[in-house]
Amino acid sequence: MFYYVLKYVLLGPLLRLLFRPRIEGLEHVPESGAAIIAGNHLSFSDHFLMPAILRRRITFLAKAEYFTGPGIKGRLTAAFFRSAGQIPVDRSGKEAGQAAIREGLGVLSKGELLGIYPEGTRSHDGRLYKGKVGVAAMALKARVPVIPCAMIGTFEAQPPGQVVPSLRPVTIRFGEPLEFSRYSGMEDEKAVLRAVTDEIMYAILGLSGQEYVDKYAAVVKAEEAEKAKQAADGPEGQKGPEGRKFPRMPLS
Q1: Which of 63, 115, 117 shows the shortest CA–CA distance to 89?
Q2: pLDDT (tens digit, 0 to 9) for every residue of the chain, 252 residues total?
């Protein structure tokens, strides 16, 4: 019930006012039946913009950290995300991927829409990154179509670290459904999962026009963080002018 209050009374009208979203290809989203909407992920606002413009309810898999914050604020945040149709998924440990797949298949088994970001995390620089194969596993196991979706302009409106979004229009573009029945019975083959995932990411790329990076976003983030740390430390542990930390000299 509260999902629809957010959608039609509280959050939905506010998001439409802030972002003035232009919707393209909405006819590709089925009016009934299970389906996966797979999109790029550029902004925190993506979680709420798509539900605000879709006619049907959509459930997203969201990181568990949104649901485990301490104190009253943490409980309110968790309640808000659940009300907005988000399901917590623990992304740590070896079983994280399988847990996400189980949750997603549970949504699809009810004939509902499932929203997923194959990149696994928000893009930190506006580029499109390599997709994880969980989306392919769910599509093949549930035997449902995948509708590619591109969020355009949300990175500029609310880049990582910006709490209050800028007032600027965005576009939400849906592509034709992708159907993978030709791979029936092959959902456990790694090569098939990779091929299906790459096809989905290629469709998203065609809609978004982003630069593509054939690496996982989390890996690139970690690499850039390590480079930044090394640059700050300087050679042989030496820090730049701000830190003035040099290797300790031996006593004479």
Answers
A1: 63
A2: 656 666 656 666 777 777 788 999 999 999 999 999 999 999 988 878 888 888 898 998 876 666 666 777 667 666 666 666 677 776 665 566 788 889 899 999 999 999 999 998 899 999 999 999 999 999 999 999 999 999 999 999 888 888 877 878 899 999 999 999 999 989 999 999 999 999 999 999 999 999 999 999 999 999 999 998 888 876 655 554 554 444 444 443
**184 CB burial (10 A radius; 0-12, 13-18, 19+):** exposed
* Residue whose token pair is 């989905």: 200
Domain boundaries, the chain: 22-51+97-219
CB 166 within 8 A of CB 154: no
Beta bridge partners of 39: 149
110 Cα distance to chain centroid:
22
Exposure class string for 27-36: b at 16+ Cβ within 10 A, else e: ebbeeeebbb
